[in-house]
Amino acid sequence: MNFEQLSQYEIEDELEFVEIEHGFTYIEINNARAHATLSTYSGQVLSYRPKGQAHDLLFVSDKAYYEDGKAIKGGIPVCWPWFGPDPDGKGRPAHGFVRNRQWQVSASESLADGSTKVIMSLTESDETRGIWPHPFRLSIEITVGDSLRIELVTHNSGTENVTISQALHTYFQVGDISKVSVLGLEGAEYIDKVDDSTRKIQTGPVTIDAEVDRIYTGVTGELVIDDASLGRKIHITSTGCSTAVVWNPWAETAASMADLDDDDYRKMICVETANAGPETVEIAAGGYYRLQAEYTIED
To answer: Would 110 be classed as within a structural domain?
Structure first.
């Protein structure tokens, strides 16, 4: 789909497509409720800020790559059809193959409540079948309003069941990581990936004072990021998932990443809506599975 073909999805004074200098196409949404920037490359939300809010919900690194074949560091990357390392040990890229592909816009809509909805999709190709040999259609439905709602819908187009893991790898902007706590995981079991994948139990809220990379299992209910420095709480509600991933690279790991500034770890935290680790999803032939997350900012 070329840039001219995208014009059919524009909405006057609400949604437009913008070609940017590194050759990608952005979807800029400005409605009565919020502003958002989406990228058709990666099917990724890069920015979301409700009207009246001083700060963006999302963090994007100033050193992020904008190149074909590379993931954009920040916003809401999509990890699919696996989360983390290649589950079969074949040397395929971590977190799957859809966060560095061009997605197709398939719908846009102005909703009665003042929100705007955009749908982007991917289907299998000769290239993807060489990586993951299954027919599929993957859609991401993004609704921009007083809240930001993301729905990742996997359609199994094949004749056999498939098993996937997945995540909305959301990078939240925070004022000062030392003043952030994540609520709602108290008592949950987690796999501590910085301690040889030891299984542990969360005691109290999650706070960050070193590198954190944890897969929380059996997660139900709302999660809250309490960001005292910016004076706000971010509420995360989800359906179709039972895993939450919390990640902050801290100083040493951040310094080793070319697409992060050395001090970016102070300004972000990932709290990911996922089905990962031992909690995978099996989708019947011809069936589908919907993973949904909704983010709301409370002053």
So the answer is: yes
According to DSSP H, which parts of 44-187 are helical? Answer: 126-131
CA distance 87 to 49: 36
Residues 6+ apart with CB under 8 A from 5: none
Residue 20 has pLDDT above 90, yes or no: no
257-266 tens-digit pLDDT: 999 999 999 9
For residue 7, tell me if it sits in a domain. Answer: no
Using an 8 Å Cβ cutoff, are 2 and 12 in contact?
no
Phi, psi of 215 (to 5 degrees): -110, 105
What is the number of domains present in the chain? 1
3-state secondary structure of 191: strand
HSE value, Cβ hemisphere, 13 Å, CA-based, for 28: 9
- This prediction has a pTM of 0.97
CA 161 to chain centre: 25
Residue 55 is among the residues annotated as catalytic for this protein: no
> Three-class SS of residue 95?
coil
73-78 average pLDDT score: 98
Q: Report the candidate in 127, 123, 124, 154 with the shortest Cα–Cα distance to residue 140.
A: 154
Is 169 noted as a catalytic residue in this protein?
Answer: yes
Q: Could you give the CA distance from residue 193 to residue 93 in angstroms, rounded to a whole number?
A: 18
Those residues whose C-beta lies under 8 Å from the C-beta of residue 229, and which sit 6 or more positions away, are 174, 175, 176, 179, 180
Catalytic residue among 272, 279, 282, 294: 272
Choosing from 169, 189, 211, 282, the catalytic residue is 169
Nearest Cα residue to 150 out of 141, 163, 138: 141
Task: Give me the count of residues in the chain.
Answer: 299
- CATH code where residue 164 lies: 2.70.98.10
